[in-house]
Amino acid sequence: MPAPPPPSPRTARGRIEALREPSSLGAKLVVILMGIGLIGSVALTALLAALIVPSFNQLEDKSVAAHIERTRAALGDFATKVEGAVRDYGDWTASYDYMVHPTPEFEKESFSTLAMVNLNVDGMAYVGKDGRIVIARWRTPPGRSEFVAALGQTDFKRVLGQKNSGHYYLRLGNELVAVGVAEVRRSDGTGDPRGYVLMARRITSKTLSNVLQLPATIDLADRPDTDAIVSARSTLRIAVPIRGADGHAVASAAFSVTRDLSLLGQRMLLLAVAGSTLLLLLVLAMLRRMISMLVLRPLARVESHMQMVRTSGSLGLLPDEPRKDEIGSLRNSFNAMLEQLKDLREQVEVQSFALGKSESAVAVMHNVRNALNPISTILSKGIAQAPPVERSMLDRAIAELGKDDLPAARRAKLLAFVAAAIEAETKDRADRHGELQIGREAMSHVLEIIGAQQSAAHERPEVAPCDVTEILAKNATIARYSGSVSIAFSFPAQACYVMASRIILSQVIGNLFSNAADAIAATGTDSGSITVTITEADGRAVIAIRDDGEGFAAENTPTLFQRGFSTRRHKSGGLGLHWCANSMAAMHGSLRLESEGVGKGAYALLTLDLAPTIEQTLAA
């Protein structure tokens, strides 16, 4: 075939300019490169942020955790000192006796303002086990009433738990105090505790700041039960709960720390992102120029040639160019494709026509064979079946009954024999009638297959609501006569209407039952079972057909649907499953096979659309 003349330089330049238009490949490549640059920049930023920011955040979190732990330790140490002071009063025989017989001498000596100054506490109290306040004192009179009111609302058993001393924090007006509690016992620790002794010491923001070595305040308004951290751009506001007797916070220790580590991480991230983005932009600019030189110009020449081919209608070959890269390989492959396209198209048409005729004919014969198997079995069984009673014995019994001198006992036995023979003959006749009825249904099935083949061969089958339970029952009855093994069937009794071609669906189910029967027979047993379940969900029905036959390996599943494949050496089929899968797809459904392994049976899963409710009612 002669090649068209090469395009002129003016035409080639026009094609290159066309590739730079907004809808051209060149413009799209520019947009793609810009998108890649943007995505790369974002991805690089995210990567650097994922590497740098978490590391500095972890260091910052560790620093914050250290501040919180140091604050808790300071608060605990302050309250523990008060607890240590009150423990001396708790394990003291004088206190133990005072709880029973309060005396002014003890109060003056051990419970005076001087004693509180020496102990560095602001308040002291003795409380009975029943909550009765024996004595309570505070350095300043205004604080005593609040102190006494708080003692009456405190559950000291909860504060102590299983110990004989403990501590907690208490809010008194605008002040916060640490309270130490101890049970009142003898000096040697014996005796049933007669109450509690308490000592309270005020803690101020200045005291807390001196302990923490940073500016800190005691916030009585903010009372979080957990550590609260409020982040700002350059600082962190930290609030550590100060817990009372009930375990909830009565105040918080608040302080601020600078975010030096976080700010350092942000500066490093910005520097790394700026440098890497600038480098990425330079690489993309160079890449765009290379694409224009190596790709866009050769594609412009190819597009110009294809325009000439479309205008002239002649499949001319691309002009030869001394290139050994992908563009040259593309030109050679495209020329070879043009040369072979016509021949391949003709071959495909011939093969498709022949294959369609062959597949249609073989599919019909395969389905007809499956439908005729029960008829052959019924006829063979009827021919081989012996009469229930030999005719000669019946005639002899009747002749003997005609004698007048026959004894009564003998006559009764003969009458019973004749009655049993007649009953056996009647039953045999009824069984034969039932088998012939099944054979007639199978023959009707064959006639339906042949009658529907002409329309089914050329168009997609028309689907309509049909009761899949009825089809299962019909094919199960026929399948009992399809082989030499005894098969027990189990399937739902309630109706289930699906959208399908009744005849084709019956053929598919009949094929699957036949294959299941062959699988059961292949195990070498005389009997087996086929169980059918129907599941409805999301407007679809899934019919699961399970047998206890020989099964198959999971890796062989794709092979089962190949045309001509069969696991039975005595059969040339395999078309059954291939045809069944295509038929299910034609009815907007699907067929899938599953097995847990050789010797463990198999599943056949058919999926179809459920019929609409109104159409189900009309079909019923």
From TrEMBL:
<dbReference type="InterPro" id="IPR003594">
    <property type="entry name" value="HATPase_dom"/>
</dbReference>
<dbReference type="Pfam" id="PF02518">
    <property type="entry name" value="HATPase_c"/>
</dbReference>
<feature type="transmembrane region" description="Helical">
    <location>
        <begin position="268"/>
        <end position="287"/>
    </location>
</feature>
<feature type="domain" description="Histidine kinase">
    <location>
        <begin position="363"/>
        <end position="612"/>
    </location>
</feature>
<dbReference type="InterPro" id="IPR050980">
    <property type="entry name" value="2C_sensor_his_kinase"/>
</dbReference>
<dbReference type="InterPro" id="IPR036890">
    <property type="entry name" value="HATPase_C_sf"/>
</dbReference>
<keyword id="KW-0597">Phosphoprotein</keyword>
<protein>
    <recommendedName>
        <fullName>histidine kinase</fullName>
        <ecNumber>2.7.13.3</ecNumber>
    </recommendedName>
</protein>
<keyword id="KW-0812">Transmembrane</keyword>
<keyword id="KW-1133">Transmembrane helix</keyword>
<dbReference type="Pfam" id="PF05228">
    <property type="entry name" value="CHASE4"/>
</dbReference>
<feature type="transmembrane region" description="Helical">
    <location>
        <begin position="29"/>
        <end position="53"/>
    </location>
</feature>
<feature type="domain" description="HAMP">
    <location>
        <begin position="293"/>
        <end position="346"/>
    </location>
</feature>
<keyword id="KW-0808">Transferase</keyword>
<dbReference type="InterPro" id="IPR003660">
    <property type="entry name" value="HAMP_dom"/>
</dbReference>
<dbReference type="Pfam" id="PF00672">
    <property type="entry name" value="HAMP"/>
</dbReference>
<dbReference type="InterPro" id="IPR005467">
    <property type="entry name" value="His_kinase_dom"/>
</dbReference>
<keyword id="KW-0418">Kinase</keyword>
<keyword id="KW-0472">Membrane</keyword>
<dbReference type="InterPro" id="IPR007892">
    <property type="entry name" value="CHASE4"/>
</dbReference>
<keyword id="KW-0547">Nucleotide-binding</keyword>
<keyword id="KW-0067">ATP-binding</keyword>
